[in-house]
Write the structure tokens for this entry.
Amino acid sequence: MFAQSDSVVHYNREVSLTVDNDMLFFRDWYYTAGHELVYRRLVQPNRPIHQLFNQRKILSKILIAYRYGNKIFTPKEITARYTREMDCPYAGWNYLGYSITRLRGLSTISQLETEVGVVGEMSGMGQIQKWWHKQVGWDVPNGWNSQISNEVVVNVNYQLLKSFKIAKELDLVSHFRIHAGTGLNKVGQEFTLRMMSMNPLTQSTFFNARMGHTGEKDTEEVFIFLSYGIDYIFSNIFLEGSLFDNPSPFTVSAEPWVINKGVGIMFSRNRSSFSFEIKNSSQEFANAKRHGFARIACAVRF
């Protein structure tokens, strides 16, 4: 009964949860944990905001998303008490986000996003990590007193995705991104191969684009993907501290070029989606180790 219902009903709202953690690799350092909760909704064509972002009257969908997230960054040796024993600083990031996404035709997605949040002790991430480690019996981090200093952070991010059909069950997705603001400044390009049974980009769970109106083609999708990308980093508050006159107890210089790789699988039906991905990045600062973490995401539409 539920399967038949999924095949004919299209949902205009979605809630998703993404969890990042390096526990899979028996590690607890660098970008060690992150969580993001997102509420998305499809904008109806008669709404002013839809008309504003669809001036050319091309067949498009407009999505609005509200998000809450947090991230934890630590040095490799979390039992070290003094900065001379650390290879990078502690940093906590607690933020809210708002984004507008335009899905044009079958193969093009653009997104503009604003993030506002706090780093430093007022983010609360240090207290949360120490509390959690005590509960599960892991080593308690000792260096949060030297974390990146308190600061309000504002970032504006832009992303552009374009897919290119290669074969019936194979396509290539180009993903260009820019981050600018007081927290992270970078520009990056990533390419992803999707293989097996996937929907067109603007109807796929790959970029949370499954919402739609009645009559839009709906297909169950299961696909694996491989990604390779490179970022050029202009500044990174989580390593280098503030851009302004707000010094932190300990900082390091960010490496300008960072290579990112990923492999994963995604599954989606009309009402729900699930994905699992393993991500790996090159050195983000001098003498750093390569770092990997797992990302799990699920979404429910209604």
Summary: The chain has one domain: 13-301. The chain has a mean pLDDT of 91.
